[in-house]
Design brief:
Layout lengths: L13 E6 L1 H13 L6 E5 L5 E6 L3 H11 L3 E5 L2 E5 L34 E5 L23 E2 L2 H4 L3 E5 L7 E4 L2 E3 L16 E3 L18 E4 L8 E8 L4 E4 L2 E2 L5 E2 L15 E5 L4 H8 L1
Length: 287
């Protein structure tokens, strides 16, 4: 029970559910049979329906919370799970500890649990994810939702890995840069005529725009390292990107004339495109 994630019938690890005590135990059993056959629902007392929320929990923890939510107690005999108002047999025995009672202290020790995962559900970021991606998954996921490794050695032990910094993206370098500072008083960045090029772009950015998002270029090196600029036009025939200037809250803008010592993108600067969707990029991150 502490090796299997409690997952909804449609494969979610973060989900809400409304049902009776029997419904919940049935779900626990279904999850366990997914990795270890033979689990069954034994005795479950009747109850009203309740709504619970689950998030990256193992079946044992979920079963414990379910029992608490229904004010019941669970019992596992072999692979049969029961959920009752009370389990066990009431006896007349009373156990005490302390001075003159023979037992001076009780201590609970956690059995060592090695950090081994053989079935991993991976989740990346939500950047560059379209609405129709993999059954409407909101973040980057594996095609089968999980990866398996060393199951034959350790059995199935499920776990979750999250990293929002992993998302579909294309990082490359500039092969040309033409920046004009002839707008306004003659020293302002002219976004209408300025552009950068990358001759290695192998898809038309215009075909992969995401509805409700603005395609953006993020500079990874050079004078504009860390700066994000919105793309307002892409000329695929020349692999040419036109972008709006970055403007800070104090009015400082980039690219910047800087008295003739221009702060601007140059050939060889690396960059990433975000807020676009390209099946090739998705494939490279999910294969």
């Amino acid at each position: 029970l502490n090796k299997k994630l409690f997952i909804s019938s449609d494969g979610l690890i973060e989900w809400d559910y409304n049902g009776s005590a029997t419904d919940y135990v049935t779900l626990i059993v279904a999850n366990m049979n997914d990795i270890d056959s033979g689990w069954t629902v034994d005795t479950v007392d009747s109850s009203d329906d309740k709504t619970m929320t689950f998030s990256e929990e193992y079946c044992l923890n979920s079963l414990t919370r379910i029992a608490e939510e229904f004010s019941m107690e669970f019992e596992i005999v072999g692979k049969a799970i029961s959920l009752k108002n009370s389990v066990g047999t009431d006896t007349a025995y009373t156990f005490e500890y302390g001075q003159d009672n023979g037992l001076y202290s009780l201590e609970r020790q956690q059995v060592s649990n090695q950090n081994i995962i053989t079935k991993c559900y991976g989740f990346g970021g939500d950047t560059n994810i379209p609405y129709d991606y993999r059954s409407r998954a909101k973040v980057l996921v594996f095609e089968d939702r999980f990866l398996l490794k060393n199951v034959s050695l350790y059995g199935t032990i499920e776990g979750v890995y999250r990293n929002e910094d992993i998302f579909p993206q294309r990082t490359s370098t500039l092969t040309a840069s033409s920046i004009d500072f002839d707008a306004g008083g003659g020293t302002d960045f002219n976004h209408k005529t300025s552009y950068i090029e990358d001759s290695t772009i192998d898809f038309d950015i215009n075909d992969y725009l995401i509805e409700g998002e603005t395609a953006t270029i993020v500079f990874k090196s050079g004078d504009l390292e860390g700066i994000e600029c919105e793309i307002w036009k892409y000329d695929h025939s020349n692999k040419r990107i036109y972008f709006n200037p970055f403007s800070d809250t104090d009015g400082y803008t980039l690219p910047f004339y800087n008295g003739g010592s221009e702060i601007q993108p140059e050939i060889g600067d690396s960059y990433t495109l975000v807020n676009i969707f390209n099946a090739t990029i998705i494939y490279r991150h999910c294969r």
